[in-house]
Amino acid sequence: MQLPTSKTAKRIGAFAGFAMALALVVGGAVAPASAATIDELQAQIATLLSQINALTAQINAGSSSSSSSGTGYQFTTDLELGSTGDAVMQLQKVLNKSADTQVSSTGAGSPGSESTYFGAKTKSAVMKFQAKNGISPVAGYVGPKTRAVLNGMGGTTGGTTGGTTGGTTTSGTGLTVTSAVQPSASLAPNSASRIPFTRVVLTASNDGDITVNGIVVERMGLAADAAFDGVVLIDENGLQIGIAKTLNSNHQVTVGEPFTVKAGTSKTVTIAGNMVADNSTRAGQVATLAVVGVNTSATVSGALPITGAAHTVNASLTLGSVTQIVSSFDPQTSATKEIGTTGYKFSGVRYTAGSAEKVRLWSIRWNQAGSAGNTDLANIKVVVDGTSYDTTVSSDGKYYTAVFGAGIVIDKGLSKDIHIQGDLIGSASAARTVRMAIYKRQDVYMTGETYGYGITPPAGSGTAANATSEFTAGTPYFDGSLLTVSAGSVTSVTKALS
Fold first, then answer.
1. Do 87 and 77 contact (CB within 8 A), yes or no?
2. Rounded to whole angstroms, how far apart are CA atoms 63 and 61?
């Protein structure tokens, strides 16, 4: 039987009040009525009260089964300004539990009137929720960090994303890890990047999608941790997942950022190593990078560790190289621009190939290190030789990756300018900042045309500064100039619907 709507419940409540008032009248104030009439009325009232109690029980049962808080709704997709759907309504219900994160006090979005649209009020409430729960950045974007807190609260209704059963989606329960076809053993030369060591296949159970938060790697073999500048995780399309990480005192590191393996499917990932610039004292050492664990909430099965190629550290092979300067397209100064500004050039770099090899540029990963969220920015493109390339935004909204198709060849002694640009949008982005940096040297992926190894750009010598862009001696590797967003005369700019 369909449960009563809120309007029906109100009508029932009103009728119950009327019935109780009528009972009082019948019980004492109506003297002229006959005994038979009073008995009949009392019987009718008793019947009505019984019906009211039954309907009330149905309302309470419906509430506890479909809309009570803390029953396990799992937020597994990112939400932002313009998002629609049931997940947005569940988000508003969570936000409306506390007065200090309430979406609205009246109308759409208010308690009892939650909607399926993620608008400016929802974004503002999410920002309050993030500030309240110590989530950084406070951007109004529901990414992995915010979802983790929401899911820890139990959400608002049953259901998770993943496999589907009777209209209710569920997360998968099992992940199988197996060995893939492994790379061949070879050399690991100075400064070479993304040398493939171990490949594994991750297969999700048929009952739902699996979220993998990272892969645990251990350096093994007769080699020193110091031979590695970092370890990275590469997907099956050759794209880096997350940033490069260094080995800890236990010779281990967890690499990658959250990604999903769809129900009943498999995903192949590669553990790759970045070598330091000078391995002359470690030449001849033989190292492996073994997969020893998977960071996920699902049950992991499979024989671990899985060990791939054993590469020999080499210090004599001369790979290609690049030199670097700040691009002429870079603003080279701190600036303030209004909401509504389009095609602003945030920062840029120029690379010149050395004399050993031609260099092929494959991809570049920019780090938005300012306080602005990705919903404050739009049409983020990376431009090379007048050609604009789309960017892919990371799950946390802080990294923008551009892939250059079959690669862009830089001939010996020649240069390429690369800059990143975009539009300033949003209704609450005023006073926020944008700083397009490159966090690690290996976030610029290029290979030599002769030997095929990844080439790592050299470290800079400067330090991070607001006023100018420069290559630093640490992280970020390239520090872009600071841009501050101003409201100006525009209060809201949003993406056009495609």
1. yes
2. 5
